[in-house]
Design brief:
The chain has 233 residues and is an alpha/beta fold. Helix content is 47%, strand content 18%. Helix 1 runs antiparallel to helix 2, helix 2 packs across helix 3 and helix 5 crosses helix 6.
Length: 233
């Protein structure tokens, strides 16, 4: 039953995405706010599909810790839905993403219009400097910059290696860091969509000004502990 519902969801998801990709093409030459609205509408539709087709409810916790203006956000990453969901509730989210994703037809075009921060993972210190410069540029627009510190998706209950990009942003942007825990990978797997509740929980932000080692350790401990606590929901 779960497999059948997952396959139906996949079909509806890709049809929904393809249709909106075409319908929303005028957004590419319109003000960027149109693209923000289009992403929110698209992601909202995915939440409805998950509930109706797969029996998955999405719950947002810690709303009192959510940013409304310029902010740096560090989030746990377990599946691609972690990106989609944030479009629904962030006022003007901007994501750090690897450059390979820009080659995807339509998606890359809309990401360019949305002015996402694109990172070359093989670029070394030059890429790190560009990440910080682009982050400063986007935050000048009063946006919310979201980075997945592990740099890739990981399995639920497993802590990945937290990368230096988030530390560089934290140091140079001089902002508190909003932390996000999730259990999304329990329910959104490679093919299967398992019924239950996907939770995204905004935790109390870390203050600006911590030493690098203290920041990295505390961030990882809090995100991992809160994400692990969600696994049995």
């Amino acid at each position: 039953m779960t497999l059948a519902r997952s396959l139906i969801f996949a079909l509806v998801f890709y049809v929904w995405s393809a249709v909106l990709c075409v319908i929303c093409l005028p957004c590419l030459i319109a003000p960027r706010s149109w693209t923000v609205a289009a992403f929110r509408f698209w992601a909202g539709g995915i939440l409805v599909m998950l509930r109706v087709i797969c029996g998955i409810r999405v719950e947002l916790r810690g709303r009192e810790h959510m940013p409304s203006g310029r902010a740096l956000i560090a989030a746990k990453h377990q599946c691609m839905f972690d990106v989609f969901a944030q479009f629904v509730w962030l006022p003007d989210g901007c994501f750090v993403m690897r450059k390979e994703l820009m080659r995807i037809p339509f998606f890359g075009w809309y990401a360019w219009k949305q002015r996402e921060v694109v990172v070359d993972r093989e670029g070394g210190s030059k890429a790190l400097k560009q990440l910080v410069n682009d982050g400063q540029d986007r935050l000048a627009e009063d946006r919310q910059l979201l980075i997945f510190p592990e740099g890739h998706r990981g399995k639920p209950g497993v802590a990945g290696a937290y990368q230096p990009g988030v530390a560089a942003l934290y140091r140079d942007l001089a902002l508190p860091v909003c932390l996000v825990a999730t259990n999304s990978g329990v329910h959104w797997q490679a093919l299967l969509r398992k019924p239950g509740v996907i939770v995204f929980e905004y935790l109390e932000p870390l203050p600006a000004g911590l030493k690098r080692a203290d920041f990295m350790r505390t961030m990882q401990e809090r995100i991992e502990a809160a994400s692990n606590a969600l696994l049995d929901i």
